[in-house]
């Protein structure tokens, strides 16, 4: 861990449980954190931004970026940024769900790369979860490996960035257990796709989160409408 002292890492921090745990792991790994958050027209944008700011305060992150990406609402085609498409509440879908935002993580990582190159960061942490990702194609180990190669080919020769995915092979219950172990303030995080005041409890993200807490024999500290 000492070899990372004084080195910088970008943490892509949505304010959700996974990205928050990933950020805490980055801090535990000894990096100086630079937090990057994206407002992309998602239904819970205001709540996620508040979560980001609250978590940055807990982590004592001084250097942070709040980046607006308005075009996701323009292209639509997903339930998170297109208000004409309902967020599913009947359980996880087969295949790629309608909550998948086209190439979102690829775009996030590309923008974060520009920030990393500017800041001289050598690592980027992202909380993707392959086994529990609802079928999103941009949450896989294979995708991360491919985009990692691309960003290092497309940046300056002296820019060397490692994409670190500490949660990629964990289940939601393991994520909950790890978050508790690291004293992550889970009460500040937000996962719901639909609501900004009390979590709906029935969207895919809420179901995965609640199931993780149940399997970890723990109680989720955020408020739910249905529970």
From TrEMBL:
What keywords tag this UniProt record?
ATP-binding, Ligase, Metal-binding, Nucleotide-binding, Queuosine biosynthesis, Zinc
Family assignment? Belongs to the QueC family.
Where ATP binds, per the record, is at 13-23
Q: Which reaction does it catalyse?
A: 7-carboxy-7-carbaguanine + NH4(+) + 2 ATP = 7-cyano-7-carbaguanine + 2 AMP + 2 diphosphate + 2 H(+)
Query: Does the keyword field hold Metal-binding?
Result: yes
Free-text cofactor note? Binds 1 zinc ion per subunit.
Tell me what this protein is called: 7-cyano-7-deazaguanine synthase
The gene behind this protein is queC
Q: What does this protein do?
A: Catalyzes the ATP-dependent conversion of 7-carboxy-7-deazaguanine (CDG) to 7-cyano-7-deazaguanine (preQ(0)).
For biological process, the GO terms are: tRNA queuosine(34) biosynthetic process
Q: Which Pfam families match?
A: QueC
The record's EC number reads 6.3.4.20
Co-factor requirement = Zn(2+)
**Which Gene Ontology MF annotations are present?**
ATP binding; ligase activity, forming carbon-nitrogen bonds; zinc ion binding
| NCBIfam families assigned to the protein according to its UniProt record, in alphabetical order | 7-cyano-7-deazaguanine synthase QueC
- Pathway terms, separated by semicolons: Purine metabolism; 7-cyano-7-deazaguanine biosynthesis
Binding, Zn(2+): 192, 200, 203, 206
């Amino acid at each position: 861990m000492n070899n990372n002292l004084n080195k910088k890492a970008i943490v892509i921090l949505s304010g959700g449980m996974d990205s928050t745990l990933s950020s805490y792991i980055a801090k535990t790994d000894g990096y100086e954190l630079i937090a990057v958050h994206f407002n992309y027209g998602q239904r819970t944008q205001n709540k996620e931004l508040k979560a980001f700011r609250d978590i940055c305060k807990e982590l004592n992150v001084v250097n942070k970026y709040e980046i607006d990406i308005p075009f996701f609402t323009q292209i639509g085609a997903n339930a998170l940024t297109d208000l004409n498409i309902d967020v599913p509440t009947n359980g996880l879908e087969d295949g790629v769900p309608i909550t998948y935002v086209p190439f979102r993580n690829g775009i996030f990582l590309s923008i974060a790369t520009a920030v990393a190159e500017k800041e001289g960061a050598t690592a980027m942490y992202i909380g993707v979860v392959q086994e529990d990702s609802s079928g999103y194609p941009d949450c896989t180990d294979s995708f991360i490996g491919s985009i990692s190669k691309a960003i290092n080919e497309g940046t300056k020769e002296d820019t060397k960035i490692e994409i670190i995915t500490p949660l990629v092979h964990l289940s939601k219950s393991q994520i909950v257990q790890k978050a508790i172990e690291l004293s992550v303030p889970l009460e500040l995080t937000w996962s719901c796709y639909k609501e900004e005041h009390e979590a709906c409890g029935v969207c895919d993200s809420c179901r995965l989160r609640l199931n993780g807490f149940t399997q970890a024999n723990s109680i989720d500290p955020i408020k739910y409408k249905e529970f």
